[in-house]
Amino acid sequence: MAFLFLMAGYEIKPSELVGTMGRHASICWGISLAAAIALVSLTGFSRFTGMAGIAFAIMLTTTAYGTLAPIMRARDLTNTSVGRAVTAYGATGEVLPVIAVALMLSTRSLLVTVIVLVVFMLVCVRIAHLSTSTARIGARFRDFVRSSAGATTQTPLRLVVLLLVFLLFLAEVAGFDSVLGAFAAGFVLRVFFPDGSDELETRLEAIGNGFLIPAFFVISGAGIDLSAALADPGLLFLFIGLLIAVRGVSVAVSLRVNPETRMMEPQERFVTTAYCVMALPLVVAITQIVVDAGAMTSQDASVLVTAGAIT
């Protein structure tokens, strides 16, 4: 799971989160979160309350952009109007829920959580700008990493794993879920390679998309209690329906309002919206957090993960 979110963080360029498209995507996510919380709290939905209710609302706002990105590349959609829209809306639909999980599902007070989160992010920024802030030594280190990306020693790949393990450890010490540490590692790696590195990406995809990420989905599938999912089709289809109503409708409306996307064909907006309601990885991660906290049963989590898989 950590490698999946490392790759997801690396896929997102900071430039994709700013500008007109990024602002509309962020506002869209905020509206979808407010709508999700309202639906869960105001409609008398008593199945999940407290921490489980907040988690359920956050899950309704997620987009699995890290999983979508290689699919978009394989279908030659990256540089199309659909690809650019999915990149902006999908990136915010993965980054912002991760931050929301860190803030809203913490057992500490909100103020303490914010302070710890800011400190964690400052450490990540310090690591990301290591090469520019330590002058000659840092410049040589960055040059070494870049120049040896295609070497047979696998040193850059080992450094990536070291970075991932360190930020996972730091997130654990700070009391956050491992998803935040893995995501941060991907962002830091993107700073080191702002324009990408074909050699390093080939190696990362070989170990990630070739082994670890498929293993994550296999293990996630093996952990699903299908009998629980089949015994509770109401919750199964309720989650999918609410995901479409909350995330799908907000994205569709935003695409129609956004000046950069309002000229898209109806079919293109539909396809973009459909991509943005794909939600499996974060559903797995969030349900695991809530189940471990004792706020949700493993049977309910299985139903939600199955619904995420269907999306």
| Helical proportion, percent range | over 70%
Please state the average pLDDT score.
84
Distance between the termini: 19 Å
What's the total count of β strands? 0
| SSE-based structural type | mainly alpha
Q: What is the H/E order? A: HHHHHHHHHHHHHHHH
Question: Which strand-content bin applies to the residues?
Answer: under 5%
* Number of helical segments with 4 or more residues: 16
Shape: globular
Report the sheet with the most strands, covering strand number, pairing sense and barrel closure.
none
Low-pLDDT parts are none
The radius of gyration over CA amounts to 19 Å
Give a quick rundown of the structure.
With 311 residues, this protein is mostly helical.
Label this structure with key terms.
single chain; 311 residues; mainly alpha
Please give a structural write-up:
- Helix content is 77%, strand content 0%.
- The chain has helices at residues 2-11, 19-42, 51-59, 65-74, 81-104, 110-128, 130-133, 135-147, 155-174, 178-192, 198-222, 226-231, 233-257, 266-276, 280-292, 298-310.
- α3 packs antiparallel against α15, α4 (65-74) packs antiparallel against α5 and α13 (233-257) packs across α16 (298-310).
- The protein starts with a helix and ends with a helix.
- The mean pLDDT is 84.
Furnish the topology, listing elements before pairings:
Elements: H1 2-11, H2 19-42, H3 51-59, H4 65-74, H5 81-104, H6 110-128, H7 130-133, H8 135-147, H9 155-174, H10 178-192, H11 198-222, H12 226-231, H13 233-257, H14 266-276, H15 280-292, H16 298-310
Helix pairs in contact: 1-4, 1-10, 2-3, 2-5, 2-13, 3-5, 3-15, 4-5, 5-14, 6-9, 6-10, 9-10, 13-14, 13-16, 15-16
